[in-house]
Specification:
This protein is α+β, with helices and mostly antiparallel strands. The protein has one domain. 27% of the residues lie in helices and 28% in strands. It has a seven-stranded mixed beta sheet with strand order 1-2-3-4-7-6-5, with helices on both faces. The protein starts with a helix and ends in a 16-residue tail after the last helix. 36% of the residues are buried.
């Protein structure tokens, strides 16, 4: 059943993005493999997406009576404007997608996930904030919940500290006011306190 979920997610993403992806598989000890898809379109946007996080519902690890079928399911999407090499980003996406199975993290909009290391080689970003992506939810057979696609927006350690102090909405406001393109892998960090 879990592989059919992955296949359904991949087909849904291909239809939504309109391209055939490159595919890499990342394996963690004790966890089913996470596939990372890389879609390259006509413009400069590159879309990376996980496939495998949604095999099982995300549950609180302390919930001993968690439903193995019903419950929130998600996949991670990263949208970047770069044709250049973002070495290591696929591994980061796999780590994010494996976090519910490995650490009991429930991925949801406005969540901050701090990885404490560069998201790709040479990146100044070490964390992400999650938000709903433009890809619509992927329906699964009843009684399974649909898969939600969450965009992981790369942020710097200073921006992550600001999110902890003031919340993600304040960071987004600062990005808007400064005209920051969060999909630019070479963007400067915004100082929300300025």
């Amino acid at each position: 059943m879990s592989e059919s979920v992955v296949d359904t997610v991949v087909s849904h993403l291909q239809a939504a993005i309109g391209a055939e992806p490159q595919r890499a598989s990342v394996t963690f000890l004790g966890v089913e493999p996470i596939d990372v898809l890389r879609f390259v379109g006509d413009g400069d946007e590159v879309v990376f997406a996980s496939a495998g996080c949604a095999r099982h519902p995300m549950t609180d690890p302390s919930d001993l009576a968690a439903d193995p079928v019903r419950g929130p399911r998600a996949e991670v999407i990263v949208r970047m404007r770069s044709r250049g090499d973002l070495a290591g980003l696929h591994t980061t996406i796999a780590v994010l997608a494996a976090a519910p199975a490995v650490e009991g993290v429930i991925l949801r909009p406005d969540a901050l996930v701090d990885l404490s290391e560069p998201l790709w080689t040479g990146s100044s970003c070490t964390a992400v904030v999650l938000e709903a992506d433009a890809v619509t939810d992927c329906a699964l057979p009843e009684p399974m919940s649909p898969v939600e696609f969450l965009r992981a927006v790369p942020i710097t350690a200073n921006e992550a500290a600001w999110v902890r102090l003031r919340g993600v909405d304040e960071l987004r406001r600062a990005w808007r006011e400064a005209g920051i393109d969060v999909a630019d892998p070479h963007r400067v960090a915004v100082d929300p306190g300025a």
